[in-house]
Amino acid sequence: MTKNLISQNRRSFLKVSAAAGGGMIIGFQIIGCKTENKLPDFVGPALDMPESWNEMNAFVKIGENGVVTIMSPNPEIGQNVKTSMPMIIAEELDVDWNNVIVEQAGLDTDNFRRQLAGGSQSIRQGWKSLRETGAKARNMLLQAAAKEWDVPISELTTDAGVISHKSSGKNGGYGSFATAAASMEIPGEVTLKDPKDFKIIGKDTRNVDGLKIAMGKPLFGLDIQREGMLIAMIEHPPAFGMKVKNVDGSAAKAMPGIKDVVTINCEPEGFNKQWSDVNAFPELVVIVGETTWEVMQAKKALKVEWEETSSLESSNDHESILADLVSKPTAEPARKDGDPEKAFAGAETIVERTYNAPFLAHNTMEPMNFFANVTEGKAELVGPIQTPEFLRKSVASLLGLEEDQISIMMTRMGGGFGRRLYGHFAVEAAAISQKVGAPVKLVYTREDDMTQGTYRPAYKVTYKAGLDADGNMIAFHVRGAGTHGSPVFADRFPAGTVDHYLAENHAKDSNISTGAWRAPRSNFIATAEQSFLDEVAEVAGKDPIEFRLALFDRAIKNPVGERNDYDPKRYAGVLKLVKEKSGWGQEQSGIHRGVSAYYCHNSYVAQVLDVEMEDGLPKVKKVYCAVDCGIVVNPEGAKNQVEGGIVDGIGHAMYSALTFSNGTPDQNNFDRYRLIRHSEAPDEIEVFFVDNGIDPTGLGEPSLPPIGAALANALYKATGTRLYSQPFSTEEALLG
Amino acid sequence: MANFNLNVNGENRQVDVDGSTPLLWVLRDHLNLVGTKYGCGIAQCGSCTVHVDGKVVRSCTTPVSTIGDSKVTTIEGLSEDGTHPVQVAWLEHDVPQCGYCQAGQIMSAVALINENKNPTDEQIANALQGNICRCGTYIRIKAAVKSAAKYS
């Protein structure tokens, strides 16, 4: 057994570790003994476990044999931060990555900051503090070596976990100084590496859970098994705008394996609602039993009477409401530059187009689920959650507990995409565990998951561009509306490039719950805007890339307004890079090309997409993608993210829609809700990163928004028809 | 409830369940083999893919009563240590993002490779069309399937 050597000031960490690990059958620890490794070298060596661990800080433990454990603080939803965040610490700690074990940290706000997966911000916001964490631990090891060798710390150097003193010829591994280092003073300030000296950052590094995933090891919330654990499922109202009126659970309760049928209210009077508590159905019927299948069967035997509490909305209603909104000016513009009305009146040509997109469900492959064990004065929660800190507040309020009586462990998540920002399912698990007095795993069926979402809202936007006689864009107007909030970002491109500019935001409230869905708002507006600009460039008789570059040139030399939320040089940079790499302008027989570029989550992306028509249906042959996200921590992982965003973006623009009839989603599983499949993915994606040494920015989202327009613009070339409404596959030109 | 003697990953396992229980839930809830995933319950997403006598089966819609003496292979049964050629190819190409669908993808890929060591793009797409990946790792999956042969 290994033991922890813990100094007094690190107790809080120990406490959380114990709470997080205690009694869990599913394993977050790496295999504890060395095995004969028959795997290829690229998998990395099997490691000998040390006799004892020495904690440098909450993130770093070093064994006497030099093996290092690095805690990954943020929730892992597939954005690969469990690999890339520890890489940043390992870089400044200056260890051999092959000697590193990564463990997922639980929620621990004493020791970690911003344990949240959202907005593509984990790396950007963690960058400095993760580097400092590694550098501080390294400094403590150096202090210990300097003391033992009685030499000045300034004469010591490190390389791959070994400390050296050149003039005396002394060398020693981190492991031999780890015990002494753990009691050294934590330095206030440390010098960070010059990025040109990076050895781990910038190097392709495989997913730390890759082997476990390929072997089907238990990693996910749904995989949790515990002694005495019951399975819980919910029955929610069949339509948005309804609630529970009356429950007859007698038939269900009499079925095999069923323990109880209860109702819960997750938002009782006085509940301190967090932003993350988005939930259309706080009152639910719950079935609790021994096994998943038995509970699923009992769910069908429930007799529940529902009652209407507000209007039952249909997609036709949404369409007419949004159409009405975009036809009218807003009371106050979101942004106005110059005199748009006058400029449009004097324009030689006006182009006006309207774009539409439906509601979307998140459809993470792992449905919502959570484990909760609520006992007297204590609650333990384990499962997939992007916002554990806010979940703890909600659970504390619901159960009347203090936050330090609640532990939350994040499992690896079978997708997030924004869905697990909204932790009502975990709050429900806590409510159920309390009510039935047993540890429970709440499991949503796919149907529960798809019909009780925090959906991407339906959107509509109208664009108008005014051109002068030379085809220059002299006036621009955008007016957007959504079933929750407007999709328009008033200060983003092309704001700042046009003298006369007007942006207007309309919104309609709906009782259908909506929320962030991978690249919120951008996931629609980029496709609309970049499709529109393609059409405007065509009307102006200009090449679509040159047309955009001229606008960026204007914003670089003489920007309009002061609130422009982008750097036109970096924006133009990715467009020029993709132009060069794709060989833009060279015609290929049978290949139709579209271009698009967008900026969101602090990163810049430009794409060229090649499509071929096969039997009247489009086939994406290749996507060229240029990305400026500053320093790339893990290039192979980063490429995977960019590829994924492109496939996901093409899939949703082409195929996906959630529609409503009288408050009920018309699609409740993958037989009716279409997601992109193997044959529909591009044959090839090539990714090019701008190498500029700027601190890293977001990458989980930015490649998704622009690709819909690259696709639409290519499909226009292929079919002669512009596409204005998603999903494109239902448009007449693409019906095959 | 009834007793079923199953051959799972080369071992004899006994479960006492209702015969209508899908193989998926027998594996997950009764045999603690949770590598096989629940995704849709209607054989549309492929997360639950296993092999029955070497053939691809969606375990979420396969009642345990239909298994009989057939040999069931799950992701856990491919190898002791992750060294099955398809698993190694998955590691080489660093395929997963979230990882949830990958067990199903791998099981479909193994069945394909067993029949055809050097499949074309089209054959790969056809064989894996029933396996959805919301993260969009399809291109890496294709590359991994193509390189699996070199590890066998």
What can you see in these coordinates?
The complex is a heterodimer of chains A (736) and B (152). Chain A is of the alpha+beta class. Chain A has 3 domains: 3-215, Aldehyde oxidase/xanthine dehydrogenase, molybdopterin binding domain (Aldehyde Oxidoreductase, domain 4); 225-310 and 368-443, Aldehyde oxidase/xanthine dehydrogenase, molybdopterin binding domain (Aldehyde Oxidoreductase, domain 4), CATH 3.30.365.10; 329-360 and 455-734, Aldehyde oxidase/xanthine dehydrogenase, molybdopterin binding domain (Aldehyde Oxidoreductase, domain 4), CATH 3.30.365. In chain A, 29% of the residues lie in helices and 23% in strands. Chain A has a 7-stranded mixed β-sheet with strand order 11-12-9-19-16-17-18, with helices on both faces. Chain A has a 5-stranded mixed β-sheet with strand order 1-2-3-4-5. Chain A has a 5-stranded mixed β-sheet with strand order 14-22-21-20-15, sandwiched between helices. The N and C termini of chain A lie far apart (64 Å). Residues 1-35 of chain A have low confidence and may be disordered. Chain B is globular. Chain B has a 5-stranded mixed β-sheet with strand order 2-1-5-3-4, sandwiched between helices. With 152 residues, chain B is an alpha+beta fold. Chain B has 5 helices and 5 strands, in the order ββαβββαααα. Chain B has 2 domains: 2-77, Beta-grasp domain (Ubiquitin-like (UB roll)); 85-151, [2Fe-2S]-binding domain (DNA polymerase, domain 1, Orthogonal Bundle), CATH 1.10.150. Chain B starts with a strand and ends with a helix. The chains are: A alpha+beta (736), B alpha+beta (152). The interface between A and B is large, with 72 and 68 residues.
